[in-house]
Amino acid sequence: MQTLMLAAVALLSYWTVHIDHPKDRAAYEELDRRFDATIHDFYVANHIDAPVALRITTDDGRYFGMRPRATLSDIEKPSALAPDLSKQLQAMTAPISAETHEVLRDHHNEIWKIERTLTTATEIAPRKYSMLRTDYVAPPKDTQYNAAMQQLVRELKGVDVIAFFSVYGDGAYRYLFLSDAPIKVRKLKDLAETRDVAATF
Question: Are 55 and 65 in contact (CB under 8 A)?
Answer without folding.
Answer: yes
